[in-house]
Give the backbone structure.
Amino acid sequence: MFFRLVKPWSSHNNSPRVTTPPGENYSTVFLPAPTSKAKAPIITLKIREALRNLSCRDQESMEEEISQLKRALLEKEMELRRRKVQAANIEAENRKLAKDIETLEMNSNVGGPRTGSPRRLRSKIAGLKVMLEEAHNTCELQAIELYELRRDIRLTHARELEVERNVYATEVRRLQQLVKKLKLANGRIGHENRVVGRLKAKNHHLEVMNLRLSSCLSASLSQIPRNPRTPVTPRTPRTPRTPCRTPRTPALQHDAALFQHTL
């Protein structure tokens, strides 16, 4: 009875996986290529909703979403590492079984004692093949999902930078308008300060002139001598005047009439 030896297939080796015919040497036999295709990456509903609602979220929610995506990325990387370790363990176990089968074949050729039944070894090898294929498929799916997550994180980071740029641009425009208003207010206040300065200088000049005039007035008043007042004598009543009427000549009468007419 012959046993088919299995050589572990490594994902790092680009050689195709083939099977040897029954009549050939059974020392090295590759596993057949998987017939099932890798399923498409499954993106969770939460990430899709985050991408759809990214434009209407604020900065804090986006930062929280980015942190969640980063945590999911780290979890996927850890899961991928665990799967790789599991695949490596399965390959090591497969190599060990291959060595055991080679030993059994050598014992069967030389008539030595056999350990275990061939049916049991075949079932164990088939189970290991299935486990190895599942591990490889899982690794491929995890790698595709990891790539999708990295692309989503890059897109999220770019949109986050765009939102921050828009926020900063709005803030810069608002600050520029405030600076313009402050410049106008500063110019107006400077003009008012110059006017107030001129008025203060003029007021100071007037105060100095007022002090000089008051000092000159006090000096002039101190130099004027004061005369004693003379007693006022009562006035004597005037005697009524007797009108002296002289006879008017016709010429005088004509002049008087002309004077009254002019008045």
Remarks:
- The chain has four helices and no strands.
- Confidence is low (pLDDT under 50) at residues 1-42, 109-114.
- Helices lie at 45-52, 59-110, 118-223, 250-262.
